[in-house]
Design brief:
Layout: E1 6-10, H1 17-27, E2 35-39, H2 43-60, E3 65-69, H3 72-75, E4 81-84, H4 90-103, H5 116-139, E5 144-147, H6 152-162, E6 166-169, H7 174-185, E7 192-199, E8 202-210, H8 218-227, H9 234-243, E9 246-247, H10 250-254, H11 272-290, H12 308-317, E10 321-329, E11 342-350, E12 353-356, H13 364-386, H14 389-398, H15 405-418
């Protein structure tokens, strides 16, 4: 009989991420009886999420061995999988990442994964992730890190360049792209198969097919798209018209990497007010579950769409799981991008680990845009690890979304000051 794995979830107190992990754990019956260890620095949130899991475990008879701790070093020994989703004062710092560049004339889109704000988002998260990896190197060196922390490509690149830990980065944004194809064609999303390749939040649909018939859906999409509401996903459609492939991420995330995005999509930034409202609603739901005020029905416990537990199942039981998109070192998966890049491609997960599908070449102009981002990513990661201010400023100066040296210097100086508490690597 196969040994059930030990799964450590860091950031488990998050109302969104934590409950998504719980839903997926209980949906994946093959893993019932495994060990789940919840880790979070917020003891109140951690306690609430643990009680949610314990109630579901008890009522379903799933047999998970559940524990909690605020000290990850208590959790990591013997771990087979470590799932991470972390952020430092997420919304408060993100607002700075967005508004300071705007103040200095950068008309950018979200400020999370690309553009000037992402430089500081990356450098805040790198020390925490690398500290986790160093603890893993001591306490569970053979464990797989499954990362959800953004900026995904940059975090995974830091892990690859500066640790010995095996890692994969996951993101559900391809589902948004499938939703666009569904709306335009009128087909059900579950009947659409997309093979996309590129960088996280900057991937491109190389192939779109009907899962039931195998029919190539690009011709239908091209025909229907001509007549569809011209205001819908304007940037994505402009890129499609000019480059011949449809991007997966929707205008918001796509626009983080495109210097002219502000001409076609909103520059209002992330809706923090709506996010806080969703968070409050989610916390209320968690409290109601703990209090027994909510019935545990199939809708509440439906899978989240995230794929961490599919990966764990695939490796544990050698099931050849196909995952639509994952972030891995480019082991020849995209032939005209460098091997030291982190690329996002479909993968097959089995007892042999996680293996990307060979996607061939990207069209030259798309590959060129990706290369521009890869070069920024290397500079940001190296700056975030070493505390080299010159590299951080260089990253801003070569970012295609920063057209002004004067603005780059001003953004750098102001955001370095705002972030100094969270960037200890620069204070050595």
């Amino acid at each position: 009989m196969l040994r059930k794995p030990k799964i450590v979830i860091i950031g488990a107190g998050s109302a969104s991420f934590g409950f998504s992990c719980i839903r997926d754990a209980f949906h994946t019956k093959e893993l019932w009886g495994s060990e789940l260890v919840f880790v979070d620095l917020d003891s109140t949130s951690l306690d609430r999420m643990t009680k949610v899991a314990e109630r579901i475990n008890r009522e379903l008879g799933a047999g998970y061995i559940i524990s909690k701790t605020t000290d990850r070093c208590e959790a990591l020994p013997g771990a087979d999988y470590v799932i991470t989703s972390i952020a430092i004062n997420r919304n408060e710092m993100w607002k700075h990442d967005f508004h300071i560049p705007k103040k200095h004339g950068i008309n950018h889109i979200l400020g999370e994964n690309g553009g000037p704000g992402a430089v500081f988002h990356t450098m805040r998260n790198i020390p925490i992730i690398l500290d986790i990896c160093r603890d893993m190197e001591r306490l569970c060196p053979n464990a797989l890190l499954i990362n959800f922390t953004n900026p995904e490509s940059r975090i995974c690149l830091a892990v690859k360049k500066y640790t010995k830990i095996k890692a994969v980065g996951l993101c559900h944004q391809i589902g948004y792209g499938i939703g666009i194809i569904s709306k335009v064609t009128g087909l059900k999303a579950e009947d659409i198969d997309v093979k996309a390749a590129g960088l996280n939040h900057f991937t491109w649909m190389l192939d779109i097919r009907n899962k039931r018939t195998g029919e190539d859906l690009y011709p239908l999409f091209r025909e229907r798209e001509k007549e569809y509401d011209p205001e819908y996903e304007k940037l994505s459609r402009y890129m499609f018209h000019k480059y011949g492939l449809f991007p997966t991420s929707g205008d918001g995330h796509l626009g983080e990497f495109v210097p002219y995005a502000h001409e076609m999509t909103s520059t209002d930034g992330y809706d923090f007010e709506a996010d806080e409202k969703r968070r409050a609603e989610q916390i209320k739901l968690m409290n109601d579950i703990v209090a027994g005020l909510v019935q545990l029905d199939s809708e509440l416990l439906a899978p989240s769409g995230e794929k961490a537990f599919d990966i764990i199942k695939g490796i544990t039981y050698d099931t050849n799981e196909v995952i639509d998109s994952a972030n891995l070192p480019n082991n020849g998966y995209i032939t005209n991008l460098p091997s030291d890049a982190i690329v996002e491609v479909p993968v097959v997960v089995s007892g042999n680990g996680i293996n990307g599908l060979g996607m061939g070449e990207l069209p030259r102009p798309i590959a060129a845009m990706c290369m521009s981002q890869i070069n920024v990513q290397h500079l940001v990661v190296d700056a975030g690890v070493t505390g080299n201010k010159d590299l951080a400023l260089q990253a801003l100066l070569i970012d295609p979304c920063v057209p002004s040296a004067q603005a780059a210097e001003a953004i750098f100086n102001e955001l370095m000051e705002i972030n100094k508490t969270y960037l200890p690597q620069f204070n050595k």
